[in-house]
Amino acid sequence: MSVGQHAGQRILVVGAGGIGTATVEHLVTEDARVVVAGRNVRMGGPFEDPQDELGLVMGHLTLDITDEGAVEWGVARAADILGGLDALVVTAGHRHDLAPLHETQAGWARDIIETELVGVMSLVRHALPFLRHSGSNGRRAGIVVVASDSAKAGSMGDAASSAARAGVLGMVKSVARENATVPVTVNAVCPGPTDTEMYRHAAETEGLTGKVFSGMAKGIPARRLGQPQEIAATVGFLLSAGSAYITGQAISVSGGLTM
Q1: Three-state DSSP state, 116
Q2: Which neighbouring-strand residues pair with 185?
Protein backbone atom coordinates (compact mmCIF):
# COMPACT_ATOMS: atom_id res chain seq x y z
CA MET A 1 0.00 0.00 0.00
CA SER A 2 1.37 3.42 -0.98
CA VAL A 3 1.59 6.11 1.69
CA GLY A 4 0.44 9.68 1.00
CA GLN A 5 2.69 12.73 1.25
CA HIS A 6 1.03 13.84 4.50
CA ALA A 7 1.14 10.49 6.30
CA GLY A 8 1.39 11.10 10.02
CA GLN A 9 0.94 14.85 9.81
CA ARG A 10 -1.42 16.27 12.43
CA ILE A 11 -3.30 19.19 10.94
CA LEU A 12 -5.92 21.65 12.18
CA VAL A 13 -8.05 23.11 9.37
CA VAL A 14 -10.15 26.14 10.32
CA GLY A 15 -12.97 27.06 7.95
CA ALA A 16 -15.59 24.70 6.56
CA GLY A 17 -16.59 26.39 3.30
CA GLY A 18 -15.95 25.13 -0.22
CA ILE A 19 -12.18 25.62 -0.12
CA GLY A 20 -11.94 24.38 3.46
CA THR A 21 -13.88 21.21 2.67
CA ALA A 22 -11.79 20.54 -0.43
CA THR A 23 -8.63 21.05 1.62
CA VAL A 24 -9.71 18.55 4.26
CA GLU A 25 -10.58 16.00 1.57
CA HIS A 26 -7.20 16.49 -0.11
CA LEU A 27 -5.22 16.17 3.12
CA VAL A 28 -7.08 13.08 4.26
CA THR A 29 -6.62 11.47 0.85
CA GLU A 30 -2.88 12.01 1.37
CA ASP A 31 -3.08 10.28 4.78
CA ALA A 32 -3.07 13.24 7.15
CA ARG A 33 -4.81 13.22 10.53
CA VAL A 34 -7.13 16.23 10.61
CA VAL A 35 -9.33 18.16 13.01
CA VAL A 36 -11.81 20.52 11.35
CA ALA A 37 -13.01 23.68 13.11
CA GLY A 38 -15.35 26.54 12.25
CA ARG A 39 -18.48 28.43 13.20
CA ASN A 40 -20.76 25.98 11.41
CA VAL A 41 -18.97 22.74 12.28
CA ARG A 42 -20.65 20.32 14.66
CA MET A 43 -18.97 19.31 17.93
CA GLY A 44 -17.65 15.78 18.23
CA GLY A 45 -14.70 13.41 17.81
CA PRO A 46 -12.28 11.91 17.95
CA PHE A 47 -13.92 9.28 15.77
CA GLU A 48 -13.94 5.63 16.77
CA ASP A 49 -10.93 3.46 15.91
CA PRO A 50 -8.75 6.14 14.24
CA GLN A 51 -5.83 3.70 14.27
CA ASP A 52 -7.53 1.68 11.50
CA GLU A 53 -6.84 4.39 8.90
CA LEU A 54 -3.78 6.39 7.90
CA GLY A 55 -5.73 9.48 6.87
CA LEU A 56 -8.75 10.44 8.92
CA VAL A 57 -10.84 13.35 10.15
CA MET A 58 -10.45 12.78 13.86
CA GLY A 59 -12.69 15.52 15.20
CA HIS A 60 -14.96 18.49 14.52
CA LEU A 61 -14.91 21.61 16.70
CA THR A 62 -17.34 24.52 16.71
CA LEU A 63 -15.15 27.61 16.87
CA ASP A 64 -15.66 31.36 16.49
CA ILE A 65 -12.22 32.78 15.63
CA THR A 66 -13.23 36.28 16.79
CA ASP A 67 -13.45 34.90 20.35
CA GLU A 68 -9.92 34.81 21.81
CA GLY A 69 -10.83 32.35 24.55
CA ALA A 70 -12.52 30.03 22.08
CA VAL A 71 -9.46 30.10 19.83
CA GLU A 72 -7.14 29.23 22.70
CA TRP A 73 -9.42 26.35 23.70
CA GLY A 74 -9.92 25.12 20.13
CA VAL A 75 -6.24 24.97 19.22
CA ALA A 76 -5.39 23.19 22.48
CA ARG A 77 -8.30 20.78 22.00
CA ALA A 78 -7.21 19.95 18.45
CA ALA A 79 -3.68 19.28 19.65
CA ASP A 80 -5.06 17.03 22.38
CA ILE A 81 -7.19 15.05 19.91
CA LEU A 82 -4.31 14.67 17.46
CA GLY A 83 -1.57 14.07 20.01
CA GLY A 84 0.22 17.23 18.92
CA LEU A 85 0.01 19.68 16.05
CA ASP A 86 2.20 19.83 12.95
CA ALA A 87 0.26 22.24 10.76
CA LEU A 88 -2.43 24.91 10.76
CA VAL A 89 -4.55 25.75 7.72
CA VAL A 90 -6.86 28.76 7.89
CA THR A 91 -9.54 29.18 5.22
CA ALA A 92 -11.99 31.26 7.26
CA GLY A 93 -13.58 34.36 5.75
CA HIS A 94 -16.41 36.82 6.32
CA ARG A 95 -19.56 36.86 4.17
CA HIS A 96 -20.84 40.33 3.37
CA ASP A 97 -22.34 42.40 0.58
CA LEU A 98 -20.09 44.73 -1.39
CA ALA A 99 -20.29 48.51 -1.19
CA PRO A 100 -18.00 51.43 -2.06
CA LEU A 101 -16.21 52.71 1.02
CA HIS A 102 -17.90 56.13 0.87
CA GLU A 103 -21.33 54.47 1.07
CA THR A 104 -20.60 52.38 4.17
CA GLN A 105 -21.56 53.16 7.76
CA ALA A 106 -19.30 53.75 10.75
CA GLY A 107 -18.09 50.44 12.18
CA TRP A 108 -18.91 48.58 8.96
CA ALA A 109 -15.39 47.21 8.58
CA ARG A 110 -14.95 45.98 12.14
CA ASP A 111 -16.52 42.54 11.83
CA ILE A 112 -14.70 41.85 8.57
CA ILE A 113 -11.31 42.80 9.98
CA GLU A 114 -11.97 40.94 13.24
CA THR A 115 -12.57 37.74 11.26
CA GLU A 116 -10.16 38.01 8.35
CA LEU A 117 -7.18 39.57 10.14
CA VAL A 118 -7.43 39.62 13.93
CA GLY A 119 -9.01 36.16 14.16
CA VAL A 120 -6.40 34.71 11.81
CA MET A 121 -3.59 36.23 13.87
CA SER A 122 -5.13 34.80 17.03
CA LEU A 123 -5.19 31.31 15.51
CA VAL A 124 -1.57 31.58 14.42
CA ARG A 125 -0.46 32.92 17.80
CA HIS A 126 -2.07 30.09 19.74
CA ALA A 127 -0.92 27.40 17.29
CA LEU A 128 2.72 28.47 17.15
CA PRO A 129 3.88 26.92 20.45
CA PHE A 130 2.63 23.51 19.26
CA LEU A 131 4.06 23.97 15.77
CA ARG A 132 7.43 25.16 17.06
CA HIS A 133 7.60 22.09 19.27
CA SER A 134 6.93 19.86 16.27
CA GLY A 135 9.40 21.66 14.04
CA SER A 136 12.17 21.64 16.62
CA ASN A 137 11.69 17.88 16.99
CA GLY A 138 12.22 17.15 13.31
CA ARG A 139 8.62 17.04 12.12
CA ARG A 140 7.39 18.92 9.03
CA ALA A 141 5.68 21.92 10.60
CA GLY A 142 3.89 24.68 8.76
CA ILE A 143 1.12 27.25 8.49
CA VAL A 144 -0.90 28.05 5.38
CA VAL A 145 -3.41 30.89 5.39
CA VAL A 146 -5.84 31.02 2.49
CA ALA A 147 -6.17 34.74 1.81
CA SER A 148 -7.27 36.27 -1.51
CA ASP A 149 -5.84 37.89 -4.62
CA SER A 150 -7.67 41.01 -3.41
CA ALA A 151 -4.80 41.36 -0.93
CA LYS A 152 -2.55 42.15 -3.90
CA ALA A 153 -4.87 43.92 -6.33
CA GLY A 154 -7.80 45.22 -4.26
CA SER A 155 -11.42 44.49 -5.10
CA MET A 156 -14.28 46.77 -6.10
CA GLY A 157 -16.60 47.37 -3.16
CA ASP A 158 -14.51 45.30 -0.76
CA ALA A 159 -12.03 47.71 0.78
CA ALA A 160 -12.19 46.26 4.29
CA SER A 161 -11.65 42.67 3.21
CA SER A 162 -8.86 43.68 0.81
CA ALA A 163 -7.18 45.57 3.66
CA ALA A 164 -7.58 42.64 6.06
CA ARG A 165 -6.18 40.17 3.53
CA ALA A 166 -3.24 42.46 2.80
CA GLY A 167 -2.60 42.59 6.53
CA VAL A 168 -2.55 38.80 6.61
CA LEU A 169 0.20 38.79 3.97
CA GLY A 170 2.27 41.14 6.13
CA MET A 171 1.75 38.86 9.13
CA VAL A 172 2.72 35.79 7.08
CA LYS A 173 6.03 37.36 6.08
CA SER A 174 6.81 38.49 9.63
CA VAL A 175 5.94 35.17 11.27
CA ALA A 176 7.87 33.32 8.56
CA ARG A 177 11.01 35.29 9.45
CA GLU A 178 10.50 34.68 13.15
CA ASN A 179 10.20 30.91 12.76
CA ALA A 180 12.40 30.02 9.79
CA THR A 181 15.17 28.47 11.87
CA VAL A 182 12.86 26.30 14.01
CA PRO A 183 11.83 25.38 11.26
CA VAL A 184 8.15 26.25 10.76
CA THR A 185 7.19 27.41 7.27
CA VAL A 186 4.53 30.11 6.97
CA ASN A 187 2.87 30.85 3.63
CA ALA A 188 -0.31 32.26 2.12
CA VAL A 189 -2.37 31.02 -0.80
CA CYS A 190 -4.23 33.77 -2.66
CA PRO A 191 -7.13 32.40 -4.72
CA GLY A 192 -8.79 34.35 -7.45
CA PRO A 193 -12.51 33.84 -8.18
CA THR A 194 -13.26 30.24 -7.23
CA ASP A 195 -16.31 28.12 -8.05
CA THR A 196 -17.80 27.66 -4.59
CA GLU A 197 -21.34 27.87 -3.23
CA MET A 198 -20.49 31.26 -1.74
CA TYR A 199 -19.28 32.58 -5.11
CA ARG A 200 -22.36 31.33 -6.94
CA HIS A 201 -24.67 32.88 -4.33
CA ALA A 202 -22.86 36.21 -4.53
CA ALA A 203 -22.98 36.21 -8.35
CA GLU A 204 -26.75 35.85 -8.21
CA THR A 205 -27.23 38.66 -5.68
CA GLU A 206 -28.75 42.00 -6.67
CA GLY A 207 -26.75 45.22 -6.78
CA LEU A 208 -22.99 45.75 -6.76
CA THR A 209 -22.26 42.34 -5.22
CA GLY A 210 -23.88 40.45 -8.08
CA LYS A 211 -22.41 42.75 -10.70
CA VAL A 212 -18.84 42.36 -9.43
CA PHE A 213 -18.95 38.61 -8.82
CA SER A 214 -20.75 37.71 -12.03
CA GLY A 215 -18.20 39.65 -14.05
CA MET A 216 -15.04 38.40 -12.37
CA ALA A 217 -14.31 35.50 -14.73
CA LYS A 218 -14.09 37.87 -17.71
CA GLY A 219 -10.85 39.34 -16.36
CA ILE A 220 -9.11 36.00 -15.83
CA PRO A 221 -6.59 35.12 -18.58
CA ALA A 222 -7.49 31.43 -18.19
CA ARG A 223 -11.13 32.38 -18.90
CA ARG A 224 -12.56 30.19 -16.16
CA LEU A 225 -13.13 30.11 -12.42
CA GLY A 226 -10.74 28.24 -10.17
CA GLN A 227 -11.84 24.99 -8.59
CA PRO A 228 -11.64 24.43 -4.80
CA GLN A 229 -9.55 21.31 -5.43
CA GLU A 230 -6.90 23.44 -7.15
CA ILE A 231 -6.60 25.65 -4.08
CA ALA A 232 -6.50 22.58 -1.84
CA ALA A 233 -3.70 21.00 -3.87
CA THR A 234 -1.60 24.15 -3.45
CA VAL A 235 -2.21 24.15 0.29
CA GLY A 236 -1.18 20.50 0.43
CA PHE A 237 2.03 21.20 -1.48
CA LEU A 238 2.96 24.01 0.92
CA LEU A 239 2.73 21.55 3.83
CA SER A 240 4.64 18.77 2.09
CA ALA A 241 8.28 17.77 2.46
CA GLY A 242 8.93 19.10 -1.03
CA SER A 243 8.17 22.68 0.02
CA ALA A 244 10.24 22.80 3.22
CA TYR A 245 12.45 25.58 1.76
CA ILE A 246 9.48 27.79 0.80
CA THR A 247 8.41 30.28 3.44
CA GLY A 248 7.05 33.81 3.65
CA GLN A 249 5.38 33.57 0.24
CA ALA A 250 1.96 34.59 -1.07
CA ILE A 251 1.13 32.29 -3.98
CA SER A 252 -1.67 33.31 -6.32
CA VAL A 253 -3.88 30.55 -7.66
CA SER A 254 -5.97 32.64 -9.98
CA GLY A 255 -5.56 31.61 -13.60
CA GLY A 256 -3.24 34.54 -14.20
CA LEU A 257 -5.50 37.22 -12.70
CA THR A 258 -2.50 38.62 -10.81
CA MET A 259 1.07 38.05 -11.96
Answers
A1: helix
A2: 142
